[in-house]
Amino acid sequence: MLKEGKKYIWKDYQKEIADNHYYYARSCIRQNFFPGSEATFLRILKNELNKDIFDDPEHTTCTGIGYHSDIIPLETTMTVVARHFALMTAAGYKNLVPSCITSFGIYSEILETWHEFPETLEKTREHLFKATGREFNLPENVVHTSDIIFKFRDEIAARGRFRLIDQSTGQPLRIVEHIGCHYARMFPHKGIGGAEYPYVLAGMVESWGGEVIDYPERRHCCGFGFRQYLVQANRGYSLSCSRKKFESMEPYKPDMIITNCPGCPYFLDRWQYVIAEQEGKTYGENGQGIPVFTYEEVAGLVLGYDPWDLGLQVHQINVEPLLDKMGIPYNPDEKYAGPDGQDLGQPAELTCMHNL
Amino acid sequence: MKNFGYTRHTDRQIDFDATDKRLYQFVFDLEPSINLCIFCGTCAATCSAGHFTTLSFRRISLLLRRGMNDIVKKEIENCMLCGKCQLVCPKGVNTRNVILQIVKGIEKYEL
């Protein structure tokens, strides 16, 4: 990989990221799939970086899943998004920070639509006022949560207790980064590094000591694709997409995968299990899978948070091999203990992958 | 195998670094005009056997390059060697000889 060329292209795709005072928009599926990620993001911003961020309980879905599945019309989505903006305006914030890549895409798409077709903005204002009596201002700054972590990646590295380095060899961990499609493919200028060479996760990995792997199917979709997954019979499409990526990355022997989208970590994690069940094939070392993380989880590991506080026990692929490589201490007995010490229950014994 | 209610699809990606190029190379060495093919499909449009079977010289030319020799072997069984495709080919590919060399190549490599 010629880094000089990439850096030349990346410089054209830098974006303004607000420094403080964020209005947080949670993700429908992230807080269910990987609940520790959003909590960790808030913890890092509030406790480590001392930023003002408002986690609004009034906030709802952006309807992104329904919109991309063609069951919710754009006008409805625009009105729901307008309500979010009204909540943000009422709370006194101007910087919107969605946790979900699809929400980020929805907000960007709608703001662009309103910019190009001002009459749709006026109509949406009318719809919202008639439905709820609310009014709103447009946000001054819309960035994804991974942009915020990217902005403060060096501060996190400076405060961190661990680095993305294999303690036994002293070599950087080999890391696959996977960017959600809606981050920059819809509007390349809204993503750090653009659509072709997004730098948002690569920048984090480099700052935290790891090595980014460039492999043939690096920019391939994880296969979520909404309708590809929502209908059970169609899930083969989703599975095939992820498998193509695994087959492509396998020869490079990655230690972990880092992602910034709600769907990607879920499917890259779960499909490894399904492939192991269906074909007996595993892609990691010693019959294990390749551990998959969200960027908040990796930031939390770097900062020395307890792995079980990050929610790493809900991953399908065991994360312990990576924790051992990084030299992160953990208590196996507390893996399935809840926050109050209650027993969460053991997962069923896997027949397809080696248990630890 | 556990039944999840879905299975993965067969990957249709062709890895040109991994394909079997022996048959194509054999034919090319003996009938270099195959390399002139632009896949316009004129041959397929005029093919008499193609009216009744899936035979298409354009497709055979493509499959040869992709190393999908098992399909080529099956397809050429339908060819009557009438030579109409050769008459209409705008690039002057000696299609009949290509078919004959494919047969020889299949025998040689026991495909």
Short overview:
Chain A has helices spanning 3-10, 30-33, 35-48, 64-68, 74-91, 101-116, 118-132, 145-151, 153-159, 181-184, 200-207, 227-230, 235-249, 263-279, 295-303, 320-326; strands at 22-25, 53-55, 95-98, 141-142, 174-178, 211-212, 256-259, 292-294. Chain A is α/β, with parallel strands linked by helices and 356 residues long.
Architecture overview:
The complex is a heterodimer of chains A (356) and B (111). By secondary structure, chain A is α/β, with parallel strands linked by helices. Chain A has 2 domains: 127 residues, Glutathione S-transferase Yfyf (Class Pi), Chain A, domain 2; 176 residues, Rossmann fold (3-Layer(aba) Sandwich), CATH 3.40.50.11810. In chain A, the strands form 2 sheets. Chain A has a 4-stranded parallel β-sheet with strand order 2-1-3-4, with helices on both faces. In chain A, helix 3 crosses helix 15, helix 5 packs across helix 7 and helix 13 packs across helix 14. Chain A is globular and about 60 Å long. The model of chain A has no long low-confidence stretch (mean pLDDT 92). Chain B has a single domain, classed as Alpha-helical ferredoxin (Fumarate Reductase Iron-sulfur Protein, Chain B, domain 2), CATH 1.10.1060.10. The relative contact order of chain B is 0.21. At the A-B interface, helix 13 and helix 14 of A face loops of B.
